[in-house]
Hints:
The complex is a heterodimer of chains A (339) and B (334).
Chain A: H1 7-30, H2 38-49, H3 58-92, H4 105-120, H5 126-145, E1 147-148, E2 151-152, H6 154-178, H7 187-191, H8 203-218, H9 221-227, H10 231-236, H11 241-263, H12 269-281, H13 285-309, H14 318-338
Antiparallel strand pairs in A: 1-2
Helix pairs in contact in A: 1-3, 1-13, 3-8, 3-11, 3-12, 3-13, 4-5, 4-6, 4-11, 5-6, 5-11, 8-11, 12-13, 13-14
Chain B: H1 2-21, E1 46-50, E2 56-60, E3 66-68, H2 71-79, E4 86-89, E5 103-104, H3 113-118, E6 123-127, H4 133-141, E7 146-149, H5 154-167, H6 171-192, E8 198-203, H7 217-224, E9 227-229, H8 242-248, E10 252-256, H9 263-272, H10 280-283, E11 287-290, H11 301-312
Parallel strand pairs in B: 3-4, 3-6, 4-5, 6-7, 8-9, 8-10, 10-11
Antiparallel strand pairs in B: 1-2
Helix pairs in contact in B: 5-6
Amino acid sequence: MMRALTPRRLLLTCTALLGVLxxxxxxxxxxxxxxxxxxxxxxxxxxxxxxxxxxxxxxxxLIILDIRWPRILLAMIVGASLSVAGAxxxxxxxxxxxxxxxxxxSSGAALGSILSLIWAAQLPGATPFGAFAGALxxxxxxxxxxxxxxxxxxxxxxxxxxxxxxFLSALIMFLMTTISGRELRGMAFWLMxxxxxxxxxxxxxxxxxxxxxxxxxxxxxxxxxxxxxxxxEAMHLGVDVVRVKFVVYLGASVLxxxxxxxxxxxxYVGLIVPHLVRLLFGSDYRLLIPATALGGAxxxxxxxxxxxxxxxxxxxxxxxxxxxxxAPVFIYLLRRRMT
Amino acid sequence: MKRNSNATRAAAGWILLATLAAxxxxxxxxxxxxxxxxxxxAVERFVEFHDDLGRLVRIPAVPQRIVSLAPSLTETVFAxxxxxxxxxxxxxxDYPPEARTRARVGGPINPNLEQIVSLRPDVVLATKAxxxxxxxxxxxxxxxxxxxTDPRTVEDVVSSTRRLGEVLGARSQxxxxxxxxxxxxxxxxxxxxxxxxxxxxxxxxLDPIISTGPHTFLADALRHAGAESVVSVTQDWPQINIEExxxxxxxxLVFAGAHQDDPQGAIDTLKKRPGWSSLDAVREGxxxxxSDALDxxxxxxxxxxxxxxxxxxxxxxxxxxxxxxxxxxxxxQL
Lengths: 339, 334
């Protein structure tokens, strides 16, 4: 599967994925409670691009540019974050079944945001920071639970993740039932993973954090390839294993916290997308990371478009859509590994 | 968000256009506008109100297109005889039956913003108990006025009804509806005066058993019906252990229609459960069943309160006829 990675191949693959992403975004903009014809949509985008939004009918401007587009942008950011986080955890834990949701890292981030809402709702940025801290703590917990005899054990790790997730969910349940705050309303919905609520943080900031997180992880891409062969081997080949693991751990936690703080716990994206990308393009992390970011954006935009159009005008939580597809794939991957 | 919205809009447009233009260049050299610019509206009079959240809301003096985000608000709009101007309701708005003919905007927790916008509402009505602040903020950013109510007591429902009449440009309907409600409450209080309240256990939900705390709107409705909930925890919707119910030994068990699709079935189920059969209320058949309106802060609430008061205090209503809309009293051997 490991073909030589040339800059040309990297560029071609990413361009192709970017093309698919733009196509998906275009159709996501088109479909919704009110559909818009392709011609009208192109005209609308042209006006938006030239800053002449006054030429657009106010209805379409509101629906397409002010509701649909920010939601799609959020879906792309969340999808890219979760997928790159998933690919990173898979390398960090040397386990192809790792995913922020399966490992309980998303639950940690959710608990972190809830605690920040209870203790510091007034502070700006408290929720994303709480989510990040929660993700860090949960990752650390899972990492230690998954060690057996000084080595990471694949099944101990998965069990540790599942147990962490259920323990944290119980804590969240406890907080939600005992704290009689109306501000926690709708939390159950958010926990399923939901993109219908516009982010209170400007998308520019989210994008910045996403780019920084992905870039930090990308600096270790070549080392991650070596690390997958085993820590000892990587060390002999001159990889600063401690530094690489620290950067990836921090980066993946930032990305998970970012995604969870704006959209709740959307599951299985970080699992499926890296796997599909590996199947299609090989497992070289220098290609895997950017391709996974684009693939994740495509996957979540698709899932959210389905979530908001399938039973329109009622909307499904996007997490339900990703879990519907993701859980069976997880089982398939698990069984294939066992045989 | 505001600051970046123009930049992101432009970015969206450019990026998407760039890819689309490539294969079919020239095709959209000068695309016409999708629709002609919206003409300036005829000069309309606007009024400003502070809603129950303290936000200043600016809406047309007589809003023509109203969207309701809660069943109670839908009922109130119809009771104010403004149902004709109601263009959107939630999936849960089931009363009056005519409400079902209006466009649906999704659930109260996660309404579909696109759908709301496409109805071009003059005002959206929300309620703090059911809707999320995020929804109100999102609509606010889209330039759609949202008036949020927050009735916490039966008296609040009366004043909120009067106020909604004002906000929706129907001051006299609101005034007469509220006055009628006040009069019925006064009449009820007169009949129940001097009678000690019945100690009741309100079954909000059966599996698991959930009742109401003392600070909810429902608890206040019970007080007006001459009942007092035996549950005294601080939570609003506590899950209750049967041991606690046995210890309190309530005089009556009260069921509401909405939460139990089949109140009779719920009663039969409870009677068979260990522990419940030894309750005085169960042995004596003291069950009261009221319509789900008891838990909806809307004018129909008065029917439900009166209906419950009749079932709990039959002696207070010696000659009065059964209420027109309410269910017949169902107290007795069930």
